[in-house]
Specification:
Length: 306
């Protein structure tokens, strides 16, 4: 392995420490930031994630609460809850945990959240401001990636950047942030012709396609910084053995849990040619919740003109 490992967990810890200091400063002004999370249904992954958010808030001094609605909750009930939280002057941030159970339309309910409390950065107003180069709230994962790159000394000005994946959560805002930092940005997706050749142009490659080990050595320019956003549960023992040869810990996870987490990048092979790379887990993942904490404190300050 030649690539430098970019430690997202360490950067996330630094962000949390910064947020804790900001919360302390706000407390001296009589302000106590508050985040409210809405969870509809009983998706196990969503429950784990919401619990992690609550724990992280507690650690930095942010007040938080969770509103649990049953999977069969109607749109009127959810809309009423969002309206009530919008109207509560004590609420600084509102987060609607996605995905919503069918047939609820997630985008329609995200649109109901007050943009000043939209700490996920998904409201159309905040999306528009980001693409105009005057962001209010930036989606947490892309914001964390930029901070990771900055703290790791990865130059963005003048760099060729390729973003693989065009989701509203990562791909599109990631491209906007890189463009704002004076990178030359190409966006790729499932219909991109000669995907590997396009990706090989990148000095900075961000993989957020949601497909295990899609990015191989053939996709990576030697010396490039490779950011792996993918988090895929893989239960195929043969695939895990190929991606992580001789990795007893991975095999142990597979035997114990029935799966292991794999990114969108063939980590072992790509690490041999890349200049820097994020692991999965421990790379981008910890940055997402850290970004949520930062956005919540930012919302609390802005709502009070601080």
């Amino acid at each position: 392995m030649n690539a430098r490992i970019l430690d997202g967990a360490a950067v996330a810890a630094a962000i949390r420490e910064r947020v804790a200091g900001q919360v302390h400063e706000l407390a001296a002004r009589g302000v106590s930031p508050r985040l409210e999370v809405i969870l509809v249904g009983d998706d196990p992954a969503s429950r784990v994630y919401v619990a992690a958010k609550g724990k992280a808030c507690l650690q930095v001094g942010i007040r938080s609460g969770t509103h649990n609605l049953p999977a069969g909750a109607g749109g009127d009930e959810l809309a009423a809850l969002i309206a009530a939280l919008n109207a509560d002057p004590d609420v600084d941030g509102i987060l609607l945990q996605m995905p919503l159970p069918k047939p609820l339309d997630g985008r329609a309910f995200l649109d109901l959240i007050d943009p000043a409390r939209d700490v996920d950065g998904f409201h159309p107003t905040n999306v528009g401001l980001l693409h105009q180069g005057r962001p209010a709230f930036v989606p947490c994962t892309p914001a964390g990636i930029v901070e990771l790159l900055d703290r790791s000394g990865v130059a963005l000005t003048g760099a060729r950047a390729v973003v693989l994946g065009r989701s509203e959560i990562v791909g599109k805002p990631m491209a906007a942030l890189l463009l704002a930092r004076h990178a030359t940005v190409t966006m790729c997706h499932s219909r991109t012709a000669d995907l590997a050749a396009v990706c090989r142009e990148a000095d900075v490659l961000v993989a957020a396609a949601g497909k295990p080990a899609l990015v191989t050595v053939a996709h990576v320019k030697p010396g490039a910084a490779v950011i792996d956003v993918g988090v895929n549960r893989v239960d195929d023992a043969a695939l895990v053995a190929r991606l992580y040869p001789g990795d007893a810990e991975r095999q142990g996870q597979l035997a114990k849990r029935g799966y292991t987490l794999v990114g969108d990048v063939d980590f072992t092979a790509v690490a041999a040619v890349a200049g820097a790379i994020t692991p999965v887990p421990g790379g981008v993942g910890p940055l997402t919740i850290a970004g949520l904490l930062q956005n919540t404190v930012t919302a609390a300050r802005r709502r009070r003109g601080l």
